[in-house]
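haha ok so turns out i had the wrong file open the whole time. this is the CORRECT one, sorry everyone. sequence first:
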Amino acid sequence: MRKFFEAYVYFMENGLGEKLAKELAEKLTGIKAPKDKIDIPDTTVKEVKLPRAKQDVFDANENVSGNYAAGDTKYNADILAEELARKRGFIKDDGIQDASDMNQTEYSKLYSESYEFLSNLNRLNKPVKRTPNVKTLATRKQRGDLTFISTKLSNPQKNKMVLEGLDGTTESLYSQFRVELEAYKNGLKNNLNYMKENNIAVGKKDKDNILYNIKMVNDLEKKVNQLADDLVNDGKEPEKIYKDFRKVQLEKRFNLTEKDIEENQGIFASMDKSLEKMEKALKDIEDIRSGKKEKDRMSIVKRKYQGKGYGPSEGIYRTLTRQFLRDEIEAGRIETTPSIYNAMKEGNHPFIDPIKVFRYHYGDNKFDVLENYIDSTSDFMSGSRYPGRFEFRKLGLVPLNKKAPGKTYAHYNLPDEIDAEIELIDNLILDYQQGKSPFIRSKEELLEAIRTQNETRAKYVKIRNEIAPEDTKVLPGDELLESSEVIEFPKIDDTTDFAKGGIVEVLI
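then structure:
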């Protein structure tokens, strides 16, 4: 019970709320939470010291300490003595017999032993005033490994890669969902335990992710239990079906037997993660062969540049708007960041596109005005020249938005343009995980490349939430990559020929 309270206090101190703190402490320790309200005392001890006693006294105390009354050693000794009586066989552990059913002389001895133990326990652990438990922030390296807390998990019940290989029977649904459930529960438990043991603070985003993931895991567990009940009602054995499913998967995909598993438990432990990775790899091979993968990638890239500014005239649009934006910024008619102003002033910036800046401040329909200007002024030799801001203003180019949409250039994107950026990053991370990048030569480089992309991804998600806050509850792309929750990093060494690559993009 002590382990439960330690976990409960940690989660409460992180502001997770009593109900969620209880649930997480239960999942972390496997100990059922007390039904009554749990009060966190204003005193504490740095390290619990135990008096000398028999092992069954320690065990009994651990079992019933949650039922103790604060400060009442006599009452607590009575509870402990009765538990000792059960452990030593004086009364049956049947929920019917109690201390009144045993010899009172023997009970008196147990009571004295219990009272002495609790008195010594209180003496050795005299509480002192609680001091704030200062928590540390997770490092970038740590957050890269805390997948089940730092991001939202994809829902297996809606995951196409999970569902597409199933035959639709209750047996297959039950088996596959149970595999996913066990992987999720273990991953979440490990991440939470690491956070607690290292006294890492839980941020607001982490809290939102935990709430989302816990709800998803609970819903999945309900579904698995429902499917198990359906199987039982049909006269079938869920446990046997599940074991047969795993056995078939092992033999089919890994050419392993149950005997092999007994000799090497590590293979079995990683099977669930490897299955989905292998299925995805086979699908990718077929997509590459058919050209679908490249078409899909180009479709995503196209989504990064939307609106009337992108088309046959985008080159001249870019030239004209850059000069006009420079003049308008200098005149104070619109406000941007220094980096964007410098890009408009100097020209030819590799990442900052004047089209997106103009689109936000003046409106997408103003490209129609520019197109009319180009048609009326262009000649074969010199094209259309920028006439100066006063002439452009006469065309009706009046700012719709004076102030910048945010602190970075990325804020000038449309929500779907950012979704495309996030999707490209997700695909890139998946390529990293599957060993498809030709510049990564070691596991350390692989991990660093993934963490760098995750960091960029998190910035895009934050900006996406800022420019379209109404979408934050169902943000496309703001969830774990469809397969990353069950994909392990590839086992590589210094001789493996991989490569570092990535999206050359900045959030200026």
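Residues 283 and 289 are 10 Å apart (CA to CA).
again sry for the mixup
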